[in-house]
Amino acid sequence: MDRPGVFRWFRYAAGGRLPERYHDWLLHDTTSKHWKARHVLRSSVGIAPLCLAWLLLPAPLPLRLAIVLMAALVAYFYSCAYMEESIDHRLSRNGFPPGTGKRIRREKAAEADAEATARYIATYRQQPGD
């Protein structure tokens, strides 16, 4: 799997498109086990410069820190509230059919649930005398 470099990743995190050779990585980034954490990290690329700018405002430090905290909380709240929609839009912008991310994550969850159910049955539903 070909990974984008640092500058290309920052461009991608800011909303840019990736070349087709990164499509496998893009699917991994948006559907892997840690896709939510990856989304929050990508969101930080847009939130961090704004927070830095607010820290540089000419005001008392406690007020600037309060502004940064409130703005970051609101930004992360909305980023996480619309996480699935944002990721599906990111995938469709890079050439995937709409709903691809949600479908792949649902399939992976179904596989994990089936494996967990099989382990449960094997452990707790054994017949007496086995």
CA-to-CA gap between the ends?
45 Å
How many structural domains in the coordinates?
Answer: 1
Regions with little confidence, pLDDT below 50 for 5+ residues? none
Q: What is the H-and-E element order? A: HHHHHH
- Please state the structural category: mainly alpha
Helix content: over 70%
Instruction: Tell me the Rg in angstroms.
Output: 21 Å
The main β sheet shows up as: none
Please count the beta strands (DSSP E, at least 2 residues each). 0
Q: Note the beta-strand portion.
A: under 5%
- The geometry reads as flat
Average pLDDT works out at 91
Quickly count the helices. 6
What does this protein look like?
This protein has 130 residues and is mostly helical. It has one domain (6-124). The chain is 73% helix and 0% strand. It is built from six helices and no strands. The chain has helices spanning 6-13, 23-31, 35-55, 61-81, 83-93, 100-124. The longest helix is centred in the C-terminal third of the chain and has 25 residues, at 100-124. The protein is flat and about 75 Å long. It starts with 5 loop residues before the first helix and ends in a 6-residue tail after the last helix. The model has no long low-confidence stretch (mean pLDDT 91). InterPro entries: DUF5313.
